[in-house]
Protein 1
Amino acid sequence: MEKIIEGLVFRPKEAVTTFFDDRNRVIVYGITGYSYIQKEFVKASGPIAYDIIKNAVKKSAKLFISEIFSKKEKSVWEFIRILNKMGIGKVEVVELNDNGEGYLKLENSFIGEYYRGQSDRAVCDYVIGLLEGGLEVIFERPFLCKEIYCVGKGDSFCEFETRISKGKVEKIDLKGIKEYKGEKTNKWDLLEFDSEEGTVWEGPNRAAIFNSSCIAMIQQEMEKITGPAAYTIIKNGNKVATNIFVKQLIPTFLGINKLITSFMKKKLVEELLKVPNYQGTIHLVIEEADYKKPYFKFRGYNSFLAENYKNKTNRPVCDFISGMIEGAAEIIYPGKHIICVENKCIATGDNYCEFEVKSSF
């Protein structure tokens, strides 16, 4: 296991993480949360969900791959090398011609492994979006990729066919894209990378590196199809994932695996608030705290979701963060039903996001 992933840079004071380019903001996110969201989205909207996910990822991938190759020579081999740093699994070339057409194999697919034979169709549309977007940037021609084998439907590995398709490729304009500043580090104690397997680990939980705009695009497209249910799906997905994550991290933070006593709660909250700073999701600051009730009010800065809405909404959009807070709080306060409400949001024009957390019983 390696402690440093090439290209991944953390700015914990700002809660901004970038990958291979200071303009390419990403988040480190557990595969349980993403997979839950995909499954529930498919349940709510049917097979169209797969196309929506693929197209959102493709659009985002074209942007961040363009950013990376704006400073180096375009190369399909370099593209594959970058993919293998993202935690999506290990990409290997089966056959590939000079035009980018051929077959790519994926071992340990981050989404396929979650389904593991439980689906009647291939499920790695996220990866298809990455491949189509990246190949179109490199070869400047439209690509159509198809998953012909998938672990999610019972195959022993995933394999993708890549073919040039008809049409034109829209050029990506990189003007005006924000370049992130701030004190950098390339190490986070909780993060490990298995280069042989193509997997990223956030403590005991498998994670992957997601482009921040991609998650926001998926949420926006989900909202168009399912309405307000999209926010509930996003919130519950991250709540489930964070619940599992925190439960497994308690021994790491407290050196114990027992009932959390009152005086430990404050320490645990303080330690957990550091995690999203490295994940690159949001910088949370305690505004009010009653550790007994419990009751908390947090201010949030640099929310990756709110940043991608840019005042284009009249409601708070950080349900991903609310789910994270609820999931963590219900482990710290077992037996309590925790509710987190976002009262203010940068996406609606506020200067910061504000989250109010309390127990309903």
Protein 2
Amino acid sequence: MLPVKSTSVESDNCVKGWQARFNQASRHTQGVAELSYALLAFWRMLLTVPCGNWSCALLLKSVRAVLLPFCINMLPILQTVPFAVCGLYWFFNGQQVPECPSETLYRFEDPQFYFCWFAGGYNMVWPMVLPLGLVVVASYCMIATAFLLPGTVPGASENRWHQEDSDLTSACGSRRLRLALQVALDIVVWLPVTMPIYGVVPAVMAYWNCLRRGNIFDFKSAAKGAASSSSAEAPSEATAEGVEVAAVVGRANADELDDVL
């Protein structure tokens, strides 16, 4: 991973920022092509590695290497689509699912109740509480580790890397409280609104592109960087041009690369 703390794209206005963020999401979802290569490499390893060299540790590491791109690029969509279908089915059937308890009281003596409850057939809210809670905790830990904790180490004031704390202000005298509230607000309120646009649509487009073109896709760069007194007022021409330049990566031929360069 590159040593950078700037994850948000830069743009001149909100509309261009939304477009740049969509291009960034589309670029990230193209990583689904890595899954096919991981599966191919794993299959070739099964055919070539002698049986005497196999071990539980090697098998576990190999499976983890295959599951990583799967969990990143496909598992979220595989979870979203069935839940959305179940939600629509529940909504258009009078807010209940056949063969699932429809009473407001919990029926702990009925085994069918537990299957319906965990599947979302009894209540469409509870199955989302635990995943959203884990997303809030994971996001908070990631941001706190990258931005807040480095500033508390000895000598942090002399290190530019440690000083980059995203200018997070305090709430009730605590920056951690402010971070927790902001992350919870973003996840609970805005995540259901933005994920269909910046999550589902780019992922489906990446699947279709991978099906038709393999790992060839149009690479659209995004400008990033911390604003300074000079760069904030007058962005450089190189940065402005970098947002517009499109490069073809993957199995592109030499002529296409020459045209880009």
Protein 3
Amino acid sequence: MKTLYCLILILLSGFFSEAISQNKYGDLPLAGQQLVLDSIQVRVFENNAWRDSAFITYGYNDSLKPFERRYYVDYNDYRLNFYRNIYFYDNSWNITMDSIVRYRPNTDTAPAIVNKFNYYPSNKLAEKYTTFYKDSTDIILTKQLYGYDINDSLAEIIDYNWNKDSTNYIPVTRTTYDYDTLTNCVIKETRHKYLNGNYYPTYIINYFYWKNSNQLSKTMKGYVVGDTVRYEEMETYFYNPKNLLDSRITYYFQKNPDSTDMIVKRSYSYDSESRMVELSDSVFIFGKYEPKYVIKYFYGEYVKHIEEIAAESRGELEISPNPARTFINIKSVTVDYFISLSIYNELGERVLAFETGSPKSAAENIQIDIASLPAGVYYLLANTKAALYKDKFIVLK
């Protein structure tokens, strides 16, 4: 049960933390990067056999933003509805509230955690207020304040706990970030403890990168003891030919800095569209890696009512020529930039996908080769940061 509890905590952590630099290399796919994450399955290797441990499903709105996430825990072959996340957004699609509701057998639902977010005018996260509900009378209040440097990179996070006696928030910890001046990649993360009006460093993470690259190669983590750092963990990162994270090996040496207590290897697998489909952990025991657990990611197509796309089109996209034979040009005067473009046939099947790699100005023509498509009616879906825009075109042969 302890293993299961740790797995659930891993999966509950930080789905919307892309604004925080230390989660830049997080393991969970983020909304908007994939179209669309449908479910996650967690399996644990125990007693020489795999068993289901947890299952997570997602619901999306018309702008590809998650409005809910449900957690199910398998216990004694019984799927227990465990948690449900509900998300709320402002007009800029910044998440304003994340409410986690707990489900218990034979009892009413109960709130577990409520996160509320405030933003600077630049849409960068400014404040996060969290309420933890142990029960109806035992409530813990915390808050985080976010600060940025002149390059708009995250500079610090200050954590506060609510003090009932003083009826005020009391500082607890402060996390600071240092960056490389040339690449603007974070090179050090320092956690401080608040004591008697001052912050004292307690934990340090050093980040290292492959030469001439912003890809992470290694991290060193350790406690601050006096004027030195006692490192307890080292992580090394490796990438596949597509520059996607292939594996991460973690070395633990808490007991003795000169010897390794445990080695854990995390491996990643992707589909043909570079979407993560599997994450697995294995522990090095007696000269070989033994499986520990695996997380599988499943993706569903967003298009559920393909026949309604033309009716929903409001002229934001310009497709030319239309009809077309070998290529189409796409641009827009009302959309700032595109993140990805997808083409579907009348059956709702995705037949072409065009990833821009980075946000690409929608005012410039984007040309897509459609010579391989049979004659017929097709639907273009353009994904932007704010919304999903749709239109149709005809292919002639």
